[in-house]
């Protein structure tokens, strides 16, 4: 979408307001879909919910690629937003629930690596399709995601269901079979099964393959009400930590950088569309490389350390962008160094985001929520994620026009200072801890 926006504005003669509404609309549609996704994954399972997401991606991408009018483009974008919501909720939950404790950080970071690889492929596609005609180029940019959507649909038909969801349905025998496939040893599989049964309320020594569980447990009924109205102090701290992570992920400026980077680069003097597309490819490379590195660091150094290091980097790079752009905007002549410096600092920002805050937000929020609340609680997190994304994306152009481009990045730097304080004060370390031990972790003073 970031590349297509330039050409949509020219081809469909849209205003800046319409562009802001377009980029925000998919996130608006994701708000109710996020809550529905959590309940859906509790009701039909994690695997089939991902399949629903792939269908939404397919339909929405095809419609956007066809769109002859702005209104049809908006409808397709809304359908994609539903797919995004379903995927953002259930992919981390699924990854967390099938992963052994020793490598949970690594495996639960895979969706983030895949997401960043998708960004890179999107940027590369934008660079290639930019060479096509105006009417065809941007439509190809928006239609090509239909291809991986079909692949995702086929692959998910072959994969196993989450063992924790199976136990919630009373299907203990099926859960045991899955755990034997995804655990390092048979002993580890049996230990994980005992812990899951205990979390669901099934006798750990029960040897039955099918156990009766209440409808409340199997369908997630009443989970949100309990989470907000009857939560214990540790659960309230867990919810605060998870929601706070998602809020700071978006209001810290990452959403604006990813979508509006061509406008930022234009401000420094890069006006050639092909060069703008090529500059965004570098952002994609940075995201993939450093998210790949982050996968190996999460289980070694811990989630908390990565958040603090990453947060410091975000503050410094946002200040750097603010200073550079302020100098450019107050300069009467063209500054030949400005475009190179801003591009490099932007790549550095993306690197710091990809190595810590971005992957850890999803790993941490999906692993700390107790089993009964995990899917729907993460749905709440995604709602916050989407609301803050909408606020940033639909106001970015208006704000930078009011306080200058440099000013908005100084604002983002201040937000990231607050985020650092939040990470340090409210987030204990979760590395190496069982999913079933998280309430105890937040009930004490461990860090």
Estimated share of beta-strand residues: under 5%
Structural class: mainly alpha
Q: State the CATH superfamily name of the largest domain.
A: MFS general substrate transporter like domains
Q: Compute the number of helices.
A: 20
Name the shape in a single word. globular
Q: How is the main sheet built? A: none
Count up the domains. 2
Tell me, what is the CATH class of the largest domain?
A: Mainly Alpha
Helix content: over 70%
Give the topology string: H per helix, E per strand. Answer: HHHHHHHHHHHHHHHHHHHH
- CA gyration radius, whole angstroms: 22 Å
User: How many beta strands in the DSSP annotation?
Assistant: 0
Mean pLDDT: 86
Cα(first) to Cα(last) distance is 40 Å
- CATH architecture heading of the largest domain: Up-down Bundle
Protein name: Major facilitator superfamily (MFS) profile domain-containing protein
GO molecular function: symporter activity
Keywords: Membrane, Sugar transport, Symport, Transmembrane, Transmembrane helix, Transport
Pfam family, one: Sugar_tr
Descriptive account of the structure:
The chain has 447 residues and is mostly helical. It has 2 domains: 4-162 and 225-443, Growth Hormone, Chain: A (Up-down Bundle), CATH 1.20.1250; 171-209, no CATH class. Helices cover 81% and strands 0% of the residues. It has 20 helices and no strands. The chain has helices at residues 4-11, 16-44, 46-66, 70-98, 104-108, 110-129, 134-143, 146-158, 163-168, 172-182, 186-200, 215-219, 223-229, 233-267, 273-301, 303-330, 338-368, 371-403, 405-426, 438-443. Helix 2 packs parallel to helix 4 and helix 18 runs antiparallel to helix 19. It is globular and about 75 Å long. The mean pLDDT is 86.
């Amino acid at each position: 979408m970031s590349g297509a926006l330039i050409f949509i504005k020219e081809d469909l003669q849209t205003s800046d307001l319409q562009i802001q509404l377009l980029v925000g609309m998919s996130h608006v549609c994701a708000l109710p879909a996020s809550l529905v996704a959590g309940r859906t994954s509790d009701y039909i399972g994690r695997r089939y919910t991902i399949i629903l997401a792939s269908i939404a991606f397919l339909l929405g991408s095809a419609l956007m690629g066809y769109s002859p009018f702005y209104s049809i483009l908006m409808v397709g974008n809304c359908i994609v937003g539903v797919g995004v919501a379903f995927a953002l909720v259930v992919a981390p939950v699924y990854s967390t629930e099938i992963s052994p404790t020793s490598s949970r950080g690594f495996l639960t970071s895979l969706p983030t690596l895949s997401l960043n690889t998708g960004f890179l492929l999107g940027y590369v596609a934008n660079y290639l399709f930019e060479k096509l005609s105006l009417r065809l180029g941007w439509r190809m940019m928006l239609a090509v995601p239909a291809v991986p959507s079909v692949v995702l649909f086929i692959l998910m038909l072959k994969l196993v269901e989450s063992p924790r969801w199976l136990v919630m349905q009373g299907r203990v025998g099926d859960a045991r079979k899955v755990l034997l496939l995804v655990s390092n040893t048979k002993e580890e599989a049996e230990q994980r099964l005992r812990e899951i049964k205990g979390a669901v309320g099934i006798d750990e020594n029960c040897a039955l393959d099918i156990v009766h569980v209440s409808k409340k447990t199997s369908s997630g009924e009443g989970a949100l009400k309990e989470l907000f109205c009857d939560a214990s102090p540790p659960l309230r701290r867990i919810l605060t930590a998870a929601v706070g992570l998602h809020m700071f992920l978006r209001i810290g400026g990452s959403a604006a950088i990813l979508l509006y980077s061509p406008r930022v680069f234009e401000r420094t003097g890069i006006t050639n569309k092909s060069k703008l597309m090529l500059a965004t490819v570098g952002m994609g490379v940075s995201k993939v490389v450093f998210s790949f590195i982050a996968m190996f660091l999460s289980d070694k150094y811990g989630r908390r350390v990565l958040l603090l290091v990453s947060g410091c980097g975000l503050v410094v790079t946002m200040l750097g962008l603010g200073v550079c752009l302020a100098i450019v905007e107050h300069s009467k002549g063209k500054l030949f160094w400005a475009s190179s410096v801003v591009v490099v600092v932007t790549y550095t920002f993306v690197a710091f985001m990809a190595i810590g805050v971005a992957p850890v937000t999803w790993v941490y929020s999906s692993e700390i929520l107790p089993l009964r609340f995990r899917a729907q609680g993460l749905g709440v997190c995604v709602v916050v994620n989407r609301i803050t994304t909408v606020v940033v994306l639909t106001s970015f152009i208006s704000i930078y026009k009011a306080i200058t481009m440099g000013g908005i990045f100084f604002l983002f730097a201040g937000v990231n200072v607050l985020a650092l304080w939040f990470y340090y004060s409210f987030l204990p370390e979760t590395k190496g801890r069982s999913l079933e031990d998280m309430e105890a972790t937040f009930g004490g003073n461990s860090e």
